[in-house]
């Protein structure tokens, strides 16, 4: 059955043989059938979030049919959006993510250009080393970071603990390596003649980057941007470790720590919060997915 | 070298050697400056704390005296640690294999349907990857809940007794891996789909005319063309899965009986929750040699890319 | 208002006299006037219980002209623990932080001693139980003040109807509201028979066997009831003894009557099991009842909180105390001390207890007689026995009397529940004990 599903690779082309077109119709049907199965698997949890978010807590406690809402209510949404707290989480998340994306892109695009097009002592090692930073897990780093924060405070008086903006400094460690890596790949795929011509015309390296490379590499840049945004929106451990006060929390940690009350799970509100927290990246993907896929794969397949 | 040669050819007139030298030097200086933020970021926020963690791992529990490799020695004697090693490998390898298989199949399915419908399907299939894992795992947690499990509710309708989803070691491992597959498979799907699209159509037609079966066409045409991307995606995912923290943390917190602890969560448990920071750091550090094996493969790939520059 | 003024002056005077240790910062208003202080308190599980604490702190802040930043930090997912560890490592953060169980001992050298304050409070409010002393007084010094908020006895919360129907036990008669308990027969044997009967009736007891505090506290009390000690006060491993074997045998038998997935339960699972109407009994403070009252009133009407069954060595109940400690890096220790004294006076304590619907249990003896416990309903008197008004129970904590560093690991890693589950799953008893001994050796690391 699966054989038929993957039988032909040329969906949009006219097919020459009768038997083949017959096969193809069946292949298509099977494809849809299996796609539906996978979509059900992939969408069950978010759908269940939506269902639960529309229930009152007494309906949840009553343990009726979990897959159906008997008395739909928007009270969870009203309560959550009416709370100042939740809006603050949202603002913090948005600010952190936007700043991180900007910092990430500035650092990784310039560095990727230098590494892909200009050479200096150790540049090849660095290009490799960038990716290796992912081998250092964040569970290892957060304790030394506490100590470093203490050092910073003692020497400069700047308190880094329990401030959302500290995350802006920390998150790039998670986003920059991968983005640089994508951009190196993307830049490497741009023909050398382009920058050679620019340089002959007397452009500086910086001009070559901003006037020639960046415009050409827009899909790659968009892909890297979305990646950086998703990663910083979703990060869990660092904000869990570094922020405590409710006005400093970002969304994922805020939902997990303020809505879950040990003994008492406000499942309706938790699911509402989670759903609203997942919304921004979902919306961004809905609009920019095509760029993302094009850029990501061009960067990654090259080489 | 070509890119350097070109500008010099026009610029250099008389003092050829020294100006060439100067230019190279200037170019490398600029390049270094452009890469400097990256270097600083990695040095200050990754390399230095990582080194510091190595130092921490060599302290005694109360962090007052230096014990060298004592902590590592201690850990290697603990049964729990070896359980964690086994579980981490089981978790990462099985999750990555299934993610790759599902990604591969789904990519082919999407590729197989008419182009204009693909966008919609792709969008729906990408959803799990876009939701922050800490959030989506909450939904799973609620689906697996001992008292209110929506899955058990369905099973009850088919006359099947309740499954202790996160309550029994085997099921709990299954759940953790399942959620990881769910969250990670779309990424593979997207990468493979893109790779599929870059397989030239003529190859398929030629193979079809030669009488190749569907399996042969996948095996001899698609697979070789996608090899590279399959390898990179799998390795990247292996690293991320191996170092996972949030899914296990939210779903089972390592239980029952430590049966789902992996490196990240176990190091958190001993380091933070039990107040033995050096041991926590040492447990995390054990990830390095295992990941280094994966890294060796990646290195090969990337250095090939680097040499092309 | 007048009362508050007097009480404030009284304690100000008292503390000033006692704080001779801090000559540099005599306790007078103005020493910290217009200062700032930040507190990290436990985020209460009972809906809206944080409000009373917040109000009290604001009152104090206005009076003393101190700006207070309050954070309520959940203990779910060990966020509070993580915060404590983070602040200890970074040497910065809140001035006052709520800590439970073994944390005061863990961070002993980073906390400001509060001997004078505790002496004063004990004089005013009565003495504290041994568990509080074991956990809060380290090396002869009080390092923390027992907090009202969050401290709790985790006794049984039973379903009146199921217990009557299946186990033939009338919990209301056994522990009547407003009268002496009739609990001679309420022993671990009776308990086991009831567990079996309720299991047969399709409404088992909901006792978790995970590694979170509810699960560990329950098994800890059962171990104490058998006199089962794994590590003694000197720090010697004595796990291979008959009392431990008895306790494990008891648990092995009990687990067969519990829901199948109890090894994965956390602190919320038993509550959900009760609120969903499935449980005959859980071991929990009245937060489950409070939630039932809101979401499932029919269930709440059938709930009755009462003391633990007695074992061969006595009637032990798990007590989970929360403390308030002051970091030694605090920039405003006098203000922090003043706030803690304000929150610990009887009138403040009562407000907090009321706001928590009776959940919070002050550690001081004279503060266990507020009206709220007798009045809470439905059903009338459901919480009467919760604060142990007749002092029939020995309030205990799992792993005591082992030295703190070891006890903490036994507690946090849930060693006892792990042993019980291993033994239940068919491991030979001696093998389980060997395994436990090996684990305990690991905890000796320092």
- Total domain count of chain A: 2
CATH class of the largest domain in chain A: Mainly Alpha
Strand content of chain C: 5-15%
**Count of individual domains of chain C:** 2
Distance between the termini of chain C: 52 Å
Mind telling me the C-alpha Rg of chain A?
25 Å
Computed over alpha carbons, the radius of gyration of chain C is 22 Å
Spatially, the strands of the biggest sheet of chain A line up as 1-2
- Give the low-confidence spans of chain A: 1-16
Question: Can you tell me about this structure?
Answer:
The complex is a heterotrimer of chains A (303), B (309) and C (446). With 303 residues, chain A is mainly alpha-helical. Chain A is built from 15 helices and two strands. In chain A, helix 5 crosses helix 12. Chain A starts with a helix and ends with a helix. Mean pLDDT of chain A is 81; it is low at 1-16. Helix content of chain B is 79%, strand content 0%. Chain B has 14 helices and no strands. Chain B has helices at residues 2-11, 16-57, 70-76, 79-112, 115-130, 133-143, 150-157, 169-197, 201-209, 214-242, 246-251, 263-273, 277-285, 287-308. In chain B, helix 8 packs across helix 10. The model of chain B is unreliable at 1-14 and 305-309 (pLDDT under 50). Chain C has 446 residues and is of the alpha/beta class. Chain C has two domains: 2-149 and 322-360, 3-Layer(aba) Sandwich (D-Maltodextrin-Binding Protein, domain 2), CATH 3.40.190; 153-319 and 377-443, Periplasmic binding protein-like II (D-Maltodextrin-Binding Protein, domain 2). In chain C, 45% of the residues lie in helices and 13% in strands. Chain C has 20 helices and twelve strands. In chain C, helix 12 (269-275) crosses helix 13 (287-295). The model of chain C is unreliable at 1-31 (pLDDT under 50). The chains are: A mainly alpha (303), B mainly alpha (309), C alpha/beta (446). Chains in contact: A-B, A-C, B-C. At the A-B interface, helix 1, helix 2, helix 5, helix 6 and helix 7 of A face helix 1, helix 2, helix 4, helix 5 and helix 6 of B.
Please give the structural blueprint:
The complex is a heterotrimer of chains A (303), B (309) and C (446).
Chain A: H1 2-5, H2 18-53, H3 57-61, H4 75-82, H5 84-117, H6 123-132, H7 138-156, H8 166-170, H9 172-188, H10 192-200, H11 205-216, H12 218-234, H13 237-242, H14 251-259, E1 260-261, E2 264-265, H15 267-301
Antiparallel strand pairs in A: 1-2
Helix pairs in contact in A: 2-15, 4-15, 5-6, 5-9, 5-12, 6-9, 9-12, 9-15, 10-11, 12-15, 14-15
Chain B: H1 2-11, H2 16-57, H3 70-76, H4 79-112, H5 115-130, H6 133-143, H7 150-157, H8 169-197, H9 201-209, H10 214-242, H11 246-251, H12 263-273, H13 277-285, H14 287-308
Helix pairs in contact in B: 2-13, 4-8, 4-10, 5-8, 8-10, 10-14, 12-13
Chain C: H1 2-18, E1 36-42, H2 50-64, E2 67-73, H3 79-90, E3 96-100, H4 103-106, H5 115-125, H6 130-136, E4 137-138, E5 141-142, E6 144-153, E7 156-159, H7 160-167, H8 171-174, H9 188-200, E8 205-206, H10 213-226, H11 242-255, H12 269-275, E9 281-283, H13 287-295, H14 297-300, E10 303-305, E11 316-326, H15 333-344, H16 346-355, H17 371-375, E12 394-396, H18 404-412, H19 415-424, H20 429-443
Parallel strand pairs in C: 1-2, 1-3, 8-9, 11-12
Antiparallel strand pairs in C: 3-11, 4-5, 6-11, 7-9, 7-10
């Amino acid at each position: 059955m699966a054989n038929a599903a993957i039988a032909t690779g040329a969906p949009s082309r006219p097919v020459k043989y009768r038997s083949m077109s017959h096969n193809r119709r069946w292949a298509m049907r099977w494809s849809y059938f299996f796609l539906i199965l996978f979509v059900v698997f992939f969408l069950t949890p978010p759908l269940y979030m939506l269902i639960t978010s529309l229930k009152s807590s007494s309906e949840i406690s009553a343990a009726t049919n979990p897959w159906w809402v008997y008395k739909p209510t928007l009270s969870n949404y009203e309560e959550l959006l009416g709370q100042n707290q939740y809006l603050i989480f949202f603002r913090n998340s948005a600010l952190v993510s936007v700043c991180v994306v900007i910092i990430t892109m500035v650092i990784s695009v310039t560095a990727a250009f230098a590494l892909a097009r200009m050479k200096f002592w150790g540049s090849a090692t660095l290009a490799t080393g960038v990716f290796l930073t992912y081998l250092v897990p964040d569970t290892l780093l957060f304790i030394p970071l506490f100590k470093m924060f203490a050092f910073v405070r003692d020497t400069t008086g700047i308190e880094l603990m329990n401030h959302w903006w500290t995350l802006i400094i920390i998150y790039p460690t998670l986003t920059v390596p991968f983005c640089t890596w994508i951009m190196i790949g993307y830049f490497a795929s741009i023909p050398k003649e382009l920058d050679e011509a620019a340089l002959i015309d007397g452009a500086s390296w910086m001009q070559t980057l901003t006037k020639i490379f960046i415009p050409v590499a827009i899909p790659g840049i968009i892909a890297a941007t979305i990646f950086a945004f998703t990663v910083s929106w979703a990060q869990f451990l660092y904000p869990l470790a570094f922020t405590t006060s409710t006005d400093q929390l970002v969304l994922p940690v805020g939902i997990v720590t303020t809505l879950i009350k040990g003994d008492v799970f406000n499942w309706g509100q938790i699911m509402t919060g989670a759903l609203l927290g997942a919304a921004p990246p979902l919306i961004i993907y809905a609009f920019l997915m095509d760029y993302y896929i094009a850029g990501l794969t061009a960067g990654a397949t090259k080489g | 070298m070509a890119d350097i040669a070109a500008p010099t050819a026009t610029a250099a007139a008389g003092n050829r050697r020294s100006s060439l030298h100067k230019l190279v030097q200037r170019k490398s200086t600029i390049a270094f400056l452009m890469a400097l933020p990256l270097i600083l970021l990695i040095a200050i926020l990754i390399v230095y704390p990582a080194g510091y963690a190595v130092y921490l791992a060599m302290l005694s529990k109360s962090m007052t005296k230096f014990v060298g490799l004592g902590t590592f020695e201690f850990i290697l004697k603990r049964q729990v640690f070896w359980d964690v090693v086994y579980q981490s490998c089981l978790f990462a390898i099985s999750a990555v294999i299934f993610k790759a298989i599902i990604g591969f199949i789904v990519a082919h399915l999407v590729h197989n349907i008419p182009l204009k419908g693909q966008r919609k399907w792709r969008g729906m299939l990408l959803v799990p990857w876009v939701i922050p894992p800490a959030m989506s795992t909450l939904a799973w947690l609620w689906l697996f809940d001992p008292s209110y499990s929506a899955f058990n509710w369905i099973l009850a309708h088919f006359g099947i007794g309740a499954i202790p989803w996160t309550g029994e070691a085997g099921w709990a491992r299954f759940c953790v891996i399942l959620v990881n597959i769910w969250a990670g498979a779309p990424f593979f799907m997207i990468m493979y789909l893109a790779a599929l699209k870059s397989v030239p159509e003529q190859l398929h037609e030629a193979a079809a005319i030669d009488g190749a079966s569907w399996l042969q066409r996948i095996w001899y045409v698609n697979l070789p063309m996608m090899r590279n991307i399959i390898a990179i995606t799998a390795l990247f995912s292996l690293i991320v899965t191996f170092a996972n923290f949030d899914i296990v943390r939210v779903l089972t917190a390592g239980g029952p009986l430590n049966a789902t602890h992996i490196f990240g969560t176990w190091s958190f448990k001993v380091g933070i929750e039990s107040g033995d920071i050096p041991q926590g750091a040492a447990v995390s550090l054990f990830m390095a040699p295992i990941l280094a094996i994966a890294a060796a493969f990646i290195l090969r790939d990337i250095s090939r890319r680097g040499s092309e520059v | 208002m007048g009362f508050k003024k007097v009480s404030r002056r009284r304690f100000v005077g008292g503390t000033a006299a006692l704080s001779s240790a801090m000559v540099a910062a005599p306790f007078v208003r103005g020493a910290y006037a217009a200062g700032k202080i930040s507190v990290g308190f436990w985020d209460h599980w009972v809906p809206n219980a944080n409000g009373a604490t917040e109000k009290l702190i604001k009152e104090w802040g206005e009076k003393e002209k101190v700006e207070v930043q309050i954070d309520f930090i959940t203990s779910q997912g060990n966020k509070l623990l993580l915060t404590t560890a983070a602040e200890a490592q970074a040497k910065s953060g809140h001035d006052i932080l709520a800590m439970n169980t073994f944390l005061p001992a863990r961070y002993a050298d980073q906390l400001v001693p509060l001997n004078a304050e505790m002496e004063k409070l004990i004089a005013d409010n009565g003495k504290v139980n041994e568990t509080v002393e074991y956990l809060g007084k380290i090396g002869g010094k009080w390092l923390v003040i027992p907090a009202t908020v969050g401290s709790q006895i985790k006794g049984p919360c039973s379903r009146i109807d199921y217990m009557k129907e299946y186990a033939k036990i009338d919990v209301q008669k056994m522990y009547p509201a407003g009268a002496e308990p009739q609990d001679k027969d309420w022993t671990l044997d009776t308990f086991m028979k009831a567990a079996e009967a309720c299991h047969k009736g399709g409404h088992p007891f909901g006792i978790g066997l995970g590694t979170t505090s509810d699960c560990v506290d329950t098994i800890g009390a059962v171990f104490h009831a058998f006199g089962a000690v794994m590590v003694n006060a000197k720090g010697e491993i004595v796990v291979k003894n008959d009392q431990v074997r008895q306790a494990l045998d008891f648990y092995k038998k009990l687990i067969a009557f519990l829901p199948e997935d109890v090894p994965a339960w956390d602190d919320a699972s038993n509550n959900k099991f009760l609120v969903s109407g499935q449980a005959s009994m859980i071991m929990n403070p009245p937060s489950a009842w409070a939630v039932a009252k809101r979401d499932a009133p029919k269930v709440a009407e059938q709930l009755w909180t009462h003391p633990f069954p007695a074992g061969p060595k006595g009637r032990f109940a798990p007590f989970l105390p929360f403390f308030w400690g002051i970091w030694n890096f605090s920039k405003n220790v006098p203000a922090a001390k003043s706030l803690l004294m304000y929150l610990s006076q009887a009138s403040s304590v009562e407000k907090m207890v009321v706001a928590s619907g009776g959940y919070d249990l002050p550690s001081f003896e004279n503060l266990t007689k507020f009206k709220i416990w007798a009045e809470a309903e439905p059903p009338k008197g459901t919480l009467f026995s919760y604060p142990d008004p007749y002092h029939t129970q020995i309030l205990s904590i799992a792993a005591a009397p082992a030295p703190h560093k070891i006890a903490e690991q036994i507690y946090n890693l849930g060693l006892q529940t792990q042993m019980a589950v291993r033994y239940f799953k068919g491991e030979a008893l001696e093998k389980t004990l060997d395994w436990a001994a090996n684990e305990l050796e690991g905890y000796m690391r320092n």
